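Study this chain:
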Amino acid sequence: MDKFGRSSLSSVNNNRRNIKSVYAIPTNTLSYGENGYYDAENRSICNLKEPVHKSDASTKAYVDSKLKELQHVENKLDVLQRTIQIMENHITSMEERLYAVALEKIPSIEKHVNDSNNHMMELLKKSSENTKHGEI
């Protein structure tokens, strides 16, 4: 300081440097990056709310919980798909068995129908012969 209580030029410059250094202290605000998004400059971001919009930030815990939910749904879908495959295999097996049984039974059914038709024809012949001869 000079004799009048004023600071010397060097002390004024020192004070200006001190003031500039105060402004250089990092703040809690984020700056915009070149792409128009906030740039955290490798600092942590804490106390985020759950995201609502597609551009909202989210925490690792939130993302992990959503991944866990998706894995749970995926596991249920896998079980359902395996169940459907098992049922399809059973249906195919049943269709094959029914087809085989039908092939076995059709000849015997045809024989039974033919035998019944032949028997009915014989009865009709006898009945018509009896009516011709006056018998009832």
